[in-house]
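B., you asked whether I could sanity-check this one before it goes into the benchmark set. Here's the sequence:
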Amino acid sequence: MAMMEEGARSCLIQSRSSLEQDIRASYLMDHMISDGVLTGDEEDRIRSKPTRREQAAALLELLLRKDNQAYISFYNALVRESYGDLASLLHNSLPLVSPEAEKSFSDGGTRYVQAVLSEGGVPQRPVVFVSRPALVNRVREKLYHLQKEPGWVTVFGMAGSGKSVLAAEAVRDHALITECFPGGVHWLSIGQLDRADLLVRIQSLCFCLEQQSQEKDPSSSIHRPPGSLEEAKERLRFLMLRRYPRSLLILDDIWDSSVLKAFDIQCRVLLTTRDRSLADCVSGSKSEVAVESGLEEGQALEILALYVNGKPQRLPEQARSIVRECKGSPLVVSLIGALLREFPDRWAYYLHTLQQKKFKRIRKSSSYDYDALDQAMAASIQVLSEEHRELYIDLTVLEKDVKVPAKVLSVLWDLEPEEVEDVLQDFVNKSLLFRDCHHRPYLYYLHDLQLDFLAEMNRSGLEVDLKHSNQWRLLRGGRLIIMSRTE
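And here's what the prediction gave me:
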């Protein structure tokens, strides 16, 4: 049998005292037996110990001799039994597993899961898929909190960070569906809809739910389509509460709080968005998961390997450098992977192109739908107020890998520090800016993709700003330089 990764094993040993003190092994073992990582004989040996603490110690001792899947099963069992604080001790050391192992392991009753998700319109896994177990389990942990009461789980992050794939993967789990959402999982792609399009989308969902209900109960009837958003909201409320209690509604790519209010019907909702603060406008319990850091190096290498039909350890020496330049973006890693599948001898060329930040050159040479990211970036900026939009475009002066405090931007924008912090909070909430909280005062920075997009949007440097000012401003190494300009 394969051994557990050293990092996971060390984490278990370090956390052993806390785990032994608090867990009830009997609560966790049912889940682990269901996952196939614990046998009935092993359960009997553990149950034979006289005290709860000795049972916990025996379970952990056994676990340390098992493999990565046993660690993940134990973690999931902690989440399911509401040991969230203990699960948090382990989640940073969750091992990576291959897509094949993840598929057979996490799906449990694969046919049942596939049937439920297919019926609810949940997208299938992308062709090139790499597991992100720590993030997936973080989302699942939040979803388990919806088992007993309605509420909202928000998955937020910048365009291209993999939010939709993450949401779909989180519900691809037999235990989660059977225990928390026996009424089914229903996926609705939203995007930037006006009221008329939103009504059509909800009408379609209501029709599908009524049709499924009639198949299960022929005495139920299908009503005429609701004629207004208010009527559609009430129809959906009735269906979710009466016909599909304890079901999950997934709203993918929400932009507008007024759209979200149409689904404020006291049901269980998982939503993906670029705007962290969006759920502030609705009622009920709320939790969130940030998709900030993107892919880890091992996961990004695995994506590249899948594209070129190889193994991560056999990739050329440029592979790690390419991954570092991609800054963890699943979209950019996939973009480069798709190019390398077409041109397998261009590792050095694409590395150099990334280092030079020539994303446009990569776009033109690729059949990959990279334009979708440009459109997403543009749309993200367009939803800002006009005043904030102009301030955001000013960030063109930032250089790559430069992090600046609010005080520097206060000089750039000629605003009071408190006003600047409010503006920056808006940008962070909308995933248009990142904040490094490990420093005091906080430092702010842009992802390379955002900088590249702003540079193209405002290609002539500070030309737009110069139309309104007799000064021009540059940032170098986090220092602001103001230079006078003669007309």
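One thing to flag: The beta strands are 151-156, 185-191, 248-254, 268-273, 285-290, 404-405, 434-436, 443-445, 471-476, 479-484. Otherwise nothing jumped out at me.
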